[in-house]
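re: that chain from earlier
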Amino acid sequence: MHEGRVSAELGLAGWPAVAEESIIARDVLLAGHVGSRLHVCHLSTAGSVEIIRWAKARGIDVTAEATPHHLLLTDEKARTYSPLYKVNPPLRTAADVEAVRQALADGTIDVVGTDHAPHPRESKDCEWQAGAFGMTGLETALPIIIATMVEPGRMTWRDVARVLSETPARIGRLSDQGRPLAVGESANLTVVDPDVRRVVDPDSQWTRSTNTPYAGMELPGQVRATFLHGRPTVLAGRPIEQTEQKEHA
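^ sequence. v structure.
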């Protein structure tokens, strides 16, 4: 739970934004001091955005990642007391969400990571304090980016490829991934239908876990097919097993 007005009203112990920001500031300064690379995962506050922006302006080799849920959801969701909204770092305020969106649009935040954290039902079907941290994110990551960044005009589809594929591959030093389409390149492709709109149903997702915070929410876009090194891994929106991949190869 984010420490703030909502946590005070709910009587839930909160984690303050400064807990995240102070660690990022420390690590940024140390990276600058020794000349190392630094990658910050799950950035979630406006203050963290400003620290990363400050570091990049000074030439410190830092990259940052944000999650889909920190682009969309706020601490107001905790008013349900449902652990479906319990995540680390916690959901923040609307002002923090806006700052993260802006930072992703202007390149201060480099990539989006799903932070996919599946849990069995009993880990979330309980009181807040006993609930596990995390939420599923693989199947809803792209629709949330479309809804929060593409449809409002903050990002183009070219930007989507950058934050979900090209830059993550560069940061992870995966030289055979995140490359543009070209003759002779390995066919690592994702085919998206941006016009589809679907209501999120926890029981119809391909993941075996149902701990999605987006249940009942209508989101745009659907991945229709994916290919890894030329082999299909999703066809007609359905993941295919390894034996099926060989048949389609």
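The radius of gyration is 19 Å.
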